[in-house]
Amino acid sequence: MRILHILDHGLPLHSGYTFRTRAILKAQMARGWEVAAVTSPRHGKFDTDEETIDGIRFYRTPRVNSGPPVIGELREVAAFAKRIEAVARQWRPDVLHAHSPVLGAMAAQRVANRLGLPLIYEIRAFWEDAAVGNGTGTEGSWKYRATRWLETRAVRKADAVAVICEGLKGDLVARGGIDAGKIMISPNGVDLGLFGEPLPHDTALARELGIEGAETIGFIGSFYDYEGLDGLIEAMPALVALRPKMHLVLVGGGPCDAALMAQAAASPVADRIHFVGRVPHQQVERYYSVIDVLVYPRKHMRLTDLVTPLKPLEAMAQRRLVAASDVGGHRELIRDGDTGTLFKPDDPAALADSVAKLFGAREGWDSRRERGRAFVETERSWAINVGRYDSVYQRLAKIGAMEDSWSHTSVVSA
Which parts of the sequence belong to the Glycosyltransferase subfamily 4-like N-terminal domain (predicted)? Predict the structure, then answer.
């Protein structure tokens, strides 16, 4: 089985997108499938047109001269499709696997039509809702509606569709004209080979951060508005009043850095809030080891109701306790009172009360940690998750074989 993945960007860049991609491709390779990837013009600078990183073969697409809205995106799609087609003619995949955003699906669909190849389109989040969550778009705007229309069109045209959670699937089916039977769930997962057994408590790091002997909560991830970190900082005075030894550790960065730091500096408990900044991915486990409870206070909006995050799974894999806002994406991952704690979203007082009660019930921590880890091992490990693609790929490969894709196409150099 040969699968050519169509990506917005990839390694060596670091993002949640690239880490999920790496996990999928490495798990597929472990099953004996042959995989390669083509990255879009949005990947940015690269050293060579073709390179192998972490054992994965990447083909690069040069940047495209920017243009006004719509024209610039169409240029990207045309250049991306040209590169995908050249690689496909050389490498001869059985299946094209495009990953969101929708520009990649549009480019891949052109190639699928030209070469008679089957296409699966995988959606990790709706581009239009992600723009709203990131503060770069407005719900209901012309751009929002146009992007939603393109997404729906891409789903209808693809031979199969994968989404990361039930929320996205339900939304697509509700749009009408989309067969629920062609949509599979490929949930977020953890590569336990890369992100496996947790480290022991790093006493030196705790001392360095000024949290030695403290009760600690924390967040490790990207600082976007929809993550609700302003609410977490707002909850800290009440939380310190309830738990006098409480400290908050924030690891990561993003568009909200400056605003969050200013808010924390003005807090009456500013000395209890520690900003670490971004850390190398290979160092992240050290920070998990010094945080008692990872808190995910996502705000209530379409994006957070429809999309499941990855970070709570990583925390559970590290045998850390998790507390999160009661939004749809979290409810697909966390069973309240069993594998984690859910609290009312957009309510700092509710956050403080729930987290304080969790610290007051330490007798149940060990068993909850083990249940969280077991959930990841049995339901969210990539070694298991990747098997969900098997039947879909087999069905699509048969379509390609019946259409005899390569009998009428010449091989050209990429």
Answer: 16-189
pTM of the model: 0.87
- Tokens in use for 135? 């503060």
Beta-carbon contacts of 189 under 8 Å, excluding residues fewer than 6 positions away, are 23, 313, 376, 380, 381, 382, 384, 385
Looking at residue 404, what is its pLDDT? Answer: 60
Amino acid 292 reads D
CATH of domain 203-379: 3.40.50.2000
Q: Per-residue pLDDT tens for 78-135?
A: 999 999 999 999 999 999 999 999 999 999 999 999 999 999 999 999 988 888 888 8
- Domain ranges in the chain are 2-189+381-408, 203-379
Per-residue confidence (pLDDT) for residue 196, from 0 to 100: 65
Q: 2-189+381-408: which CATH number, 3.40.1170.60, 3.40.50.2300, 3.40.50.2000, 3.30.70.60? A: 3.40.50.2000
Cβ distance 361 to 77 under 8 Å? Answer: no
> Cβ contacts of residue 74 below 8 Å, gap of 6+?
none
Nearest Cα residue to 4 out of 78, 84, 104: 84
Bridge partners of 190, per DSSP, are: 381
Low pLDDT (below 50) residues in the chain: 407-414
Q: Three-class SS of residue 162? A: strand
Rg (CA), the chain: 22
Q: In the prediction, which pLDDT does 402 show?
A: 59
